[in-house]
Amino acid sequence: MVFGGAAPSKTFDPARDLPSMKGKVALVTGSSSGIGLAILQHLLRLGAKVYMAAPDNELVKEALERIEKEGREPGLGEATWHELDLTDPRRAKASAEQFTAREARLDILVNNAAQISDLGNPKVNDDGIQYNMAINYLGPFVFTGTLLPLLEYTAGSGNDVRIVNIGSDGHKDVQFLDYGSKVAWNHKFERTMLPTMERYKYSKLAVHLWTNNLTKRLTTTNSKVMILLAHPGAILSDGAIRSLKTLPFPSFWIWLMGKMMYPQEMGAYTAVFAACAPRNNPEISHGAYIFPPNVAYPQAPAALDEKIQQQLFTFTEEFLTSINLDSVASNLSSD
């Protein structure tokens, strides 16, 4: 359930309006359900070979069965599961290394996986980092950094290579702008009306800051890899429905939210557009923030603040060095 933003386009059809992705390899994190699964399905229908990067759980089998039931036509792309656990940066790095060992190219990386709700109970990983930051920011940072040489290699062969990070319109509402310590990362927002949602927004602003910082790094190194942000819009996803089912009178809440929000197939539009639309499309550019209905949209000033970007990167680098993952940070440095 992702709040905020304009409505997705009701006339856009990815299978009709985007070029074929046959021969391309894509990897979508958190794609065993929700918007991630919808992104994966659209890419399959465009003909790509798509890896479902997700933890080993019952959702993977259900998702693969659902893909076959709902169809991969017209492109008939291939879906393959790849194990990914973003709660621990070491496991995120190992997963990326395993992917590099099994594939010789990577054209599209969509960092979609995220914890939206912690149900009011913010857990921490073994390093003492709250899951909202571990799953939504740090894990993807490490995963992407480890995959970057493969992405660069693919782009160097003349291919259109893209990283698409899923952001959120909620990033503009964050008032707590400290990203320089573990204490800050673990801020609980207890004095706010909806602490769970504030923790989610805080982590998503981190994604925007990281993406903007990486955009500069790729520019300064003359990289051919393009990176974009995408906001899904107000979407009633599989995860949202699962959360609503825990409430009293769940059928009522699902019906009500269904009147106010859009199906996850439409929530995937901005990410698939960012990943596949031709580079000569006026909405597509390096570092662009794609907003429903598939238009480039300005980010909040905090997301563009280079001092906050650098503070986040500096502490991330320090933290990864402390757990012997400093080589990952060097891949993503803007220096």
Automatic annotation (TrEMBL):
GO terms for molecular function: oxidoreductase activity. Signal peptide: none annotated. Transmembrane segments: none annotated. Keywords: Oxidoreductase. Gene3D superfamilies: NAD(P)-binding Rossmann-like Domain (3.40.50.720). It comes from the Eukaryota. The keyword Oxidoreductase applies. SUPFAM superfamilies: NAD(P)-binding Rossmann-fold domains (SSF51735). InterPro entries: NAD(P)-bd_dom_sf, SDR_fam. This is NAD(P)-binding protein.
